[in-house]
């Protein structure tokens, strides 16, 4: 039988802790505890402790998290927000629906936002920088903070893929005035549907965002202004908190898998791999994804598929500025070159060492290096 390695094993999200999940669901159902209950409060407290943030706020999804954070930071009409075009469309959509103008810029060889490209894009209307902490890696936040300080700009982090990643010991999502996380099922910490969170160390931001996620209501239930209906479901929060307790082992395993890819593929001149675990002391990467660049990318992907191996070109093969219907434009030469070469290999804790070996042996065979 041919070895098969799916890109992502969705059933594993559930079966990995099935008995614990069923017990939690049963407990919540019997309590009738569905919205804004103690399970959500406990998860928010534990998430804040895990990340080192003062506050964590559960919301309905990662996109809402970005919109709420931007609005709470008084970002709106007439403002520009700079972001890397190598990101999911939701990053730009959040800027748009906050009332501001999305300004896409370039990335660097590690696929993170390019500080020089940020500098080139700053105008008198620039209000904020929104770096995407991509693929489980954190940008060089010292460089970004220096730019923000120089130009009096806010930083709102899109850390949807970054939970647990650190730069100089500090967690993704805790650098700017706010940082956001996604709990989409395929994320390192994923729930059984949509979910998100916002991190902040700012008291005023927390109070504003707390109200905005729940129809403008404060802690006493009084409506203080206009708000959204964007609450993280209590049952999803309980599931996430169960998984959070084992998150260290999840990160450790992903780093082992990344090391296996590095060991078996690192000598191939046809590939540009992401930075290996431990190769850069300032960075602790959690490998939400394993995104590389490959010569003859499309042929390689076809060959992998024929051999039963799933792979993915992120964002449907288009950077945000390349989605013509959005009407954005950008001078981003590295991003455009990279999108002709980028490919994500399977990266999740359902993978065995043998699975990774098969993927790597197949890639070596494709390039005649078996």
- By CATH, the superfamily of the largest domain comes out as Type I PLP-dependent aspartate aminotransferase-like (Major domain)
Q: Tell me how many strands there are.
A: 13
CATH architecture of the largest domain: 3-Layer(aba) Sandwich
Shape: globular
- Output the strand order for the largest sheet: 1-9-8-5-4-2-3
Helix content: 25-40%
- Write down the Rg: 21 Å
Number of domains: 2
Assign the CATH topology of the largest domain: Aspartate Aminotransferase, domain 2
User: What is the mean predicted local confidence, pLDDT?
Assistant: 97
Strand content: 5-15%
Count helical runs.
Answer: 13
Low-pLDDT runs of 5+ residues are none
Series of H and E elements: HHHEHEHEHEHEEEEEHHHEEEHHEH
Major sheet, described briefly?
7 strands, mixed
Overview in brief:
The protein is α/β, with parallel strands linked by helices.
What does this structure look like?
- The protein is of the alpha/beta class.
- It has two domains: 12-244, Type I PLP-dependent aspartate aminotransferase-like (Major domain) (Aspartate Aminotransferase, domain 2, 3-Layer(aba) Sandwich), CATH 3.40.640; 247-366, Alpha-Beta Complex (Aspartate Aminotransferase, domain 1), CATH 3.90.1150.
- It contains 13 helices and 13 strands.
- It has helices at 10-15, 18-31, 38-51, 62-72, 89-97, 115-121, 141-151, 203-212, 234-244, 247-265, 297-306, 333-338, 353-366; strands spanning 55-59, 80-84, 101-105, 126-130, 154-158, 166-167, 170-171, 178-182, 196-200, 271-272, 283-284, 290-294, 342-345.
- The chain has a seven-stranded mixed sheet, sandwiched between helices. Strands 7-6-11 form a three-stranded antiparallel sheet, with no helix packed on it. It has a three-stranded antiparallel sheet with strand order 10-12-13.
- Strand 6 and strand 7 (170-171) form a beta hairpin.
- Helix 2 (18-31) packs antiparallel against helix 9, helix 3 runs parallel beside helix 9 (234-244) and helix 10 (247-265) runs parallel beside helix 13.
- It is globular and about 65 Å long.
- The model has no long low-confidence stretch (mean pLDDT 97).
């Amino acid at each position: 039988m041919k070895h098969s390695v799916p890109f992502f094993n969705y059933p594993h999200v559930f079966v990995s802790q099935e008995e614990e999940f069923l017990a939690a669901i049963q407990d919540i159902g019997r309590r009738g505890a569905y919205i804004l209950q103690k399970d959500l409060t406990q998860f928010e407290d534990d998430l804040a402790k895990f990340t080192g943030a003062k506050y964590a706020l559960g919301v309905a999804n990662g996109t809402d998290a970005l919109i709420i954070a931007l609005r709470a930071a008084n970002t709106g009409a007439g403002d520009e927000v700079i972001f890397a075009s190598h990101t999911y469309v939701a990053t730009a959509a959040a800027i748009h629906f906050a009332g501001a103008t999305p300004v896409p810029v370039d990335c660097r060889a590690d696929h993170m936002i390019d500080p020089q490209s940020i500098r080139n894009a700053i105008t008198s209307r620039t209000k904020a920088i929104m770096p995407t902490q991509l693929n489980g890696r954190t940008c060089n936040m010292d460089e970004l903070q220096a730019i923000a300080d120089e130009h009096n700009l806010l930083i709102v982090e899109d850390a949807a893929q970054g939970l647990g990643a650190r730069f100089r010991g500090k967690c993704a999502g805790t650098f700017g005035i706010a940082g956001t996380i996604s709990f989409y099922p395929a994320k390192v910490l994923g729930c059984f549907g949509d979910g998100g969170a916002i991190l902040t160390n700012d008291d005023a931001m927390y109070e504003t965002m707390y109200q905005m996620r729940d129809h403008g209501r404060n802690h006493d239930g009084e409506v203080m202004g206009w708000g959204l209906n964007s609450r993280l479901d209590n049952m999803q929060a309980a599931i996430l908190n169960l998984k959070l307790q084992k998150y260290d082992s999840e990160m450790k395993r992903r780093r082992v898998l990344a090391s296996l890819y590095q060991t078996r593929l690192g000598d191939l001149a046809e590939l540009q791999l992401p930075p290996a675990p431990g190769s850069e002391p300032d960075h602790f990467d959690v490998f939400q994804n394993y995104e590389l660049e490959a010569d003859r990318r499309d042929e390689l992907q076809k060959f992998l598929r024929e051999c039963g191996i799933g792979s993915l070109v992120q964002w449907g093969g288009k950077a945000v500025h390349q989605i013509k219907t959005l009407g954005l434009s950008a001078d981003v030469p590295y991003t455009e070159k990279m999108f002709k070469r980028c490919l994500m290999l399977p990266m999740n804790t359902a993978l065995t060492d043998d699975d990774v070996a098969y993927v790597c042996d197949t890639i070596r065979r494709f390039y005649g290096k078996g």
